[in-house]
Amino acid sequence: MGKVLDVQCPHCSAPVHFSAKIGKMHCEYCGYEFDASEIKQETTEEVVDTQEVVEDESDVNYVRYNCPDCGAEIITEENTAATFCLYCGNTSIIRSRLEGKFAPSLIIPFKTEKEKAIEAFKNIRKGRPFVPASFNSEANIEKITGLYIPFWLYDITVDGKMDGTATKVKHWTTGNTHYTKTDYYNVERAGKMYFKRVPVDGSKKFDNDIMNTIEPFDYKELVKYNHAYLSGFLAEKYDVDSEEAFEDAKARVLVSGKETIDKSLSYATVNRKNEVIEVTDKQNEYVLLPVWMVSVKYNNEFYIFAMNGQTGEFVGNIPLDKKKVFLYTALVFLGVLIIFLIGSLLMYYV
Length: 350
Prior knowledge:
By secondary structure, the protein is of the alpha+beta class. Helix content is 20%, strand content 40%. Strands 1, 5, 9, 10, 11, 12, 13, 14, 15, 16, 17 and 18 form a 12-stranded mixed sheet that branches. The longest helix is centred in the C-terminal third of the chain and has 28 residues, at 322-349. The radius of gyration is 28 Å and the shape is flat.
């Protein structure tokens, strides 16, 4: 036996969803609104969970579950932690993917509603005449989904030191004589930098550049994880462990450390003799962060639209309609050619 969680109203036992608009759980049946903390973490339904692995031609592994509300079969990817039942529409939270080392410590609940994501997606064509008309069609709008993405947050201490030589050069003129003065210095720098909650996407499925672009999140709004926040949304568990993800965080803070030293060196030239910038301490937290997302297939390629589910910051990987580009180029060329011919004729007859 395995466990799949659903979230039920404490008053009427109907399935409930988390509302980003009010920041609370909302029951559409009896109208009761309440905090997620009122949902007990151990609320579960026993279901037959054979975790039968199904493979398709793309070598993606899928797992079968049963919906705890209607009993229908649910097929998910192996890293999906929360999904929807296609028959009754209720959220099924797969407990085994949120336990043990996969248990998030904190979560930022959704604050932006789906309507805001839809509005941003519709407006993405404004000022972009070459975006295909089908890109933000109603069919694609319907696919916009709220998703909790796994992130690692790192608290990192960096020690940096360097020594070397430097010069400052001064030029001036007195009468007809030009002077140049060069001062030489021995320079030393040493210090400690503390980085708080450096984020790294913990899923291979999502493009790191897109995830980095919709940052930052306001980590002051992190709350203790409760599976109730997942109700009404999808969720993934990490498949990039903390040590692997740390390499990305480490690269970012070491670059920041070097840039900080460089900003303090206001010289004409600097010759570094010794420079060491290294991580001396780190801690991490596993959290879930909210993102609205849709993947659109166009000309056999996938393009991603993503919005920060907390701040509303969004990014779009947008295709170009080559036919529109060609037509526009042809019209511009034709227009220039006509102007050139008219100008030539006027010059000829004048």
